């Protein structure tokens, strides 16, 4: 197992700002600010479902119906030997019918000339009942996947 390397407070503040901007950009469809969150070649997802590039992330989000704004919290960070930062955050959505859903993001952030940016994001829906409006699901992330 790779030892976790703590992230200094200045770097953590920069990364938490980027992660907060994510929800603002996505939820408000403020695509001209996507460069403050993502690398140009960001990969969203994993395996065959992965989508690459800001414009593809925009297209993916624009096609989600219905779309529910979300709130991100409980982020933990670790520095990898290659200098990237891994972030693991929880998210909560509140649907128009008043029900809630949750899940996780696991991100890899890289330092660019413009600052820290998300280079890779994988999302996992949290534990949801069989009758959940979005369909059933269960958590799939672990500390092993976060340390990846």
Task: Provide keyphrases for this structure.
alpha+beta, 148 residues, 6 strands, globular, 3 helices, six-stranded mixed sheet, single chain
Question: Can you put this structure into words, describing what you see?
Answer:
There is one protein chain. By secondary structure, the protein is an alpha+beta fold. Helices cover 22% and strands 36% of the residues. The chain contains 3 helices and 6 strands; from the N terminus they run αββαββββα. The chain has helices at 9-27, 54-62, 143-147, and strands at residues 38-44, 51-52, 70-79, 85-94, 100-112, 115-125. It has a 6-stranded mixed sheet. A hairpin with a 5-residue loop joins strand 3 (70-79) and strand 4 (85-94). The protein is globular and about 45 Å long. The chain starts with 8 loop residues before the first helix and ends with a helix. The model has no long low-confidence stretch (mean pLDDT 86).
Report the end-to-end length measured between terminal Cα atoms: 10 Å
Main β-sheet description: 6 strands, mixed
Low confidence ranges: none
Counting DSSP H or I runs of 4 or more residues, the number of helices is 3
Query: Helical content, roughly?
Result: 10-25%
């Amino acid at each position: 197992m790779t030892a976790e390397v703590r992230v200094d407070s200045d770097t953590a503040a920069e990364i938490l700002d980027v992660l907060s901007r994510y929800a603002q950009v996505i939820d408000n469809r403020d695509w001209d600010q996507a460069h403050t969150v993502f690398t140009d070649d960001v990969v969203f997802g994993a395996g065959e479902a992965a989508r690459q590039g800001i414009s593809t992330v925009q297209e993916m989000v624009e096609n989600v119906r219905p779309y529910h704004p979300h709130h991100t919290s409980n982020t933990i960070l670790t520095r990898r030997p290659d200098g990237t930062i891994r972030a693991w955050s929880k998210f909560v959505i509140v649907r128009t019918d008043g029900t809630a859903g949750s899940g996780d993001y696991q991100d890899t952030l890289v330092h660019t000339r413009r600052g820290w940016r998300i280079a890779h994001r994988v999302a996992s829906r949290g534990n949801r009942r069989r009758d959940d409006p979005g369909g059933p699901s269960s958590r799939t992330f672990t500390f092993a996947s976060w340390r990846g």
